[in-house]
Amino acid sequence: MIKEFCAIDEHDYDEQRLRRSLPALLDGDDYGVVWLLGEPVDGYAVVTWGYSLESGGVEALIDEIYVRSREAGLGSKVLTAILGDCRARGCKIVFLETEARNARVRRFYERAGFRVDDSIWMSLSLDNGNEQNSDTGMRTRNG
């Protein structure tokens, strides 16, 4: 099902990366949760946790939601359940990102109350040899 999502959303599907990263989500809820949607399973959602001083505590990131049958209203039901779970866990804010070309999915999230932020996401992969000199003389408070 993840492969289907990647094809529709035009993401690279990397089975090895998935095999390395998915067990941490399935073994507990320290990093986030995986939802299986419908009976029989008709989709999935992945929600992960972060922490921010700016947000005032725990943040949630809806990393992926994929529903095969969009006509049944399952997406709206799932989003409502996810937001309720995030509230129950004490999350202060829920983030998500959409592809710039996907106006339809942005309208779906806007109907649920999400708004476009002024922030611009940036990323740097730390898995691909993108290393800089880390000998700065600094250390973390915890280590």
UniProtKB/TrEMBL annotation:
* Coiled coil residues, start to end: none
Ordered alphabetically, the record's keywords are: Transferase
The answer to whether keyword Transferase applies is yes
Entry's InterPro entries?
Answer: Acyl_CoA_acyltransferase (IPR016181), GNAT_dom (IPR000182)
PROSITE patterns named among the record's database cross-references: GNAT
Q: Does the keyword Transport apply?
A: no
Q: Name one GO molecular function term.
A: acyltransferase activity, transferring groups other than amino-acyl groups
Every copy of the N-acetyltransferase domain together lies at 1-143
Top-rank lineage group of the source organism: Bacteria
Q: Where are the transmembrane segments?
A: none
Kindly provide the name given to this protein in its UniProt entry: GNAT family N-acetyltransferase
- Organism the protein comes from: Seongchinamella unica
